[in-house]
Amino acid sequence: MFGLRLDPIAFSLGSISVHWYGIILGTAALVGLLLAVQEGKRFGLSPDFFMDLLLFGVPSAIIGARIYFVAFQWDEYKNNLMDVFKIWNGGIAIYGALIGAFACGIIYFRNKGYSFWRIADICAPSLIAGQMIGRWGNFVNQEAYGGEVKESFLRNTLHLPDWIVNQMNVAGVFHHPTFLYESLWNLVGLVILLVIRRRPFLRAGEQLFFYFIWYSLGRFYVEGLRTDSLAFHGADWAASLMNGLWSPMKAIFGEQGYLDPSYGNIRISQLLALLLVIASVAMIIIRRRTGAASEHYNDPIINFKTGLPAGAENKKNSDEPNPKPPIEHNGGNAANGSGDTSIKE
C-alpha cells in the first residue's frame, strides 16, 4: 500500500459491507431531492411529487449509467457477467445516467400532466449538485483520475491537503485529481443556476440547457486529463479537432492523459460534451425564434390534464367545506334517555 489510502468500505454489518461509494451517491441523491422540493414549493408542487420522481429516477439513472459503461467495455464483461452488477466497484457513466434519468422523467412528467421543460428546469440544480457530490465516490475508489503529476504540483501548486494528495497516490504514482476539478466546476455551475433562475429573461427549458452547456464545457476539458476514457476510432480530422480545442489547457495542466492509440483516438465523453454544447445553444435560439419558449421560468406551471396551476387542485379540495352530517332528534328527552340522538348517515 502506498500512502494513507482511504478504505472504500465505510463499515460492515456481519457479512454485508457498506461502501463509501454508495453512501456518497445516496447523499448526492438526497441533496438533489431537497433542492428540487424547496424550489417546487414555489410553484405549488408537493414534496411527494419529487420523492416519487426520485424513487423512479435513481434506479433508472443507475441502470442507464451501467448499461452505457458496460456497452463500451463489453470485452471485459462478456465472460464475467456477474461483474456487470458490481457497481460498488465503480464503472458507471454519467451520460448513461442522464439518458436513463431523462427517459424516466419524460414518462413520469407526462403521466402527471406537466411539461417536461418546466419540471426539468427545476431539477437542473439537483442534477449538477448530485454530480458535484457524486465525484467524491470516485475519489474514495481511486478511479477516474488524471495523468501522472509530481507530488509538488499537488502540494505546492494546488495546495491540496494531505488526505487528498495521499489518495491521488496510486501504486506509487501521483495523478491529477480530476474528481476535484469537476466537483469544483459543478459547484460554480450550481451557484450560477441558483442565481439565474430568478432572472426575468430566463425562458422555459433554458435552465436545463444552461446546465448542459456548463457541465459539458467542464467535462470536455477534465475528460482530456483522464487515463480511463471510453474511446473509439474516428476520423483523424475529428481527433485533431478535439486535441486543438483542448490545447489551451496545456499551459495549466500540461499534457493530456494517456489514451492508448489501439483503444481509440476520440474520447466519447469529449465528443458528447461538444455535441451537447452545440445542441443546447441551438435549442435556445430555435425555441426563442419559433415561440416554443414563450413561457418564462417564473411563470406558473400549468397541468395540461386539468388546465389548473400546479397544486391548485389540492388547494381547491382543501378549501371546500366539509359539512357535518345533521343530527336528527326523534322526539323524547335526551337527558333521560327516552329519545334517539343517533347520527343519521
From TrEMBL:
Query: Care to name a GO molecular-function term for this sequence?
Result: glycosyltransferase activity
Q: Where does this one sit in the cell? A: Cell membrane
Report whether Cell cycle shows up as a keyword of the record. no
Region entry Disordered: which residue ranges?
A: 308-345
Q: Would I find Coiled coil among this entry's keywords?
A: no
- Residue ranges crossing the lipid bilayer per the database entry: 20-37, 49-72, 92-109, 116-134, 178-196, 208-225, 268-286
Signal peptide per UniProt = none
- This entry's Enzyme Commission designation comes to 2.5.1.145
Q: How does it sit in the membrane?
A: Multi-pass membrane protein
Q: Where does a 1,2-diacyl-sn-glycero-3-phospho-(1'-sn-glycerol) bind?
A: R135
Q: Keywords of this protein's UniProt record, alphabetized?
A: Cell membrane, Glycosyltransferase, Membrane, Transferase, Transmembrane, Transmembrane helix
Its annotated pathway reads: Protein modification; lipoprotein biosynthesis (diacylglyceryl transfer)
Please report a single Pfam family linked to this protein.
LGT
> Where is the major localization of this protein?
membrane
User: Compositional bias (Polar residues) at which positions?
Assistant: 333-345
* Protein name stated in the entry: Phosphatidylglycerol--prolipoprotein diacylglyceryl transferase
Q: What is the lineage of its organism?
A: Bacteria, Bacillati, Bacillota, Bacilli, Bacillales
